[in-house]
Design brief:
Blueprint (H helix, E strand, L loop, with lengths): L1 E8 L3 H8 L2 H7 L3 E8 L2 E10 L2 E15 L3 E9 L5 E13 L2 E13 L7 H71 L1
Antiparallel strand pairs: 1-7, 2-3, 3-4, 4-5, 5-6, 6-7
Helix pairs in contact: 2-3
Length: 193
């Protein structure tokens, strides 16, 4: 089975690359991912629960990154087994391009499914892959929204503190002006007596 897709993000290509190479971030983004552990450089162990139609399967397997060209591209080779239900293996080519302040991610995937899972039919498997890909990129994109919201909140809090400090300075300045005017009035009154 072959799959292709494209997504764009409002982040720099380097940021997308760093997120795509962070196992903790990927674990959060992959629907049903229970484990995503780096066994050695560019080689990971995965454990993922997937619902394919009426079947719930737990896949365990490996994911290897190859032909790495930071921050623009790499190839993912993965294989997984769901025990008696069968398994899958595949290759995904990932390409990142930055244009007009957007980063475009394009992918091409070729997968092979075997065992009882393959008997479910291409349409059901295709639907599951598309659904989980959509969930992945929705989760992936929400991390940037969350990060930018936190950054914005920190900026607002920082601006609030600066404004609060400026207000305190203005209030002190107003008190000093009031005291000076008060002293001048007293001095004038004392001179008139």
């Amino acid at each position: 089975m072959n799959f292709t897709g494209s997504y764009h993000f409002r982040e720099k290509v380097q940021t997308i690359w760093e997120y795509l190479n962070n196992p903790e971030i990927l674990k959060k983004c992959i629907n049903g991912c229970e484990e995503f552990i780096e066994k050695e450089k560019n080689c990971f162990f995965l454990k993922i629960k997937v619902k394919i139609g009426p079947i719930n399967a737990t896949f365990t397997g490996t994911l290897i990154l190859k032909d790495i060209n930071p921050p623009h591209s790499y190839i993912i080779e993965a294989n997984g087994s769901a025990g008696q239900l069968g398994g899958a293996n595949g290759k995904v080519e990932i390409r990142l391009d930055e244009k007009e302040n957007l980063t475009y991610l394009n992918y091409k995937a070729n997968t092979k499914i075997h065992g009882k899972i393959a008997q479910l039919g291409a349409r059901l498997i295709d639907g599951t892959v598309k659904k989980n890909t959509t969930i992945f990129f929705k989760n992936f994109n929400s991390l940037f929204i969350e990060h930018n919201t936190i950054k914005s909140q920190m900026l607002k809090e920082d601006n609030y503190e600066k404004e609060k400090c400026a207000n305190n300075k203005r209030q002190k300045k107003n008190i000093y002006i009031f005291l000076i005017i008060f002293l001048i009035i007293i001095l004038i009154l004392m001179n008139h007596e």
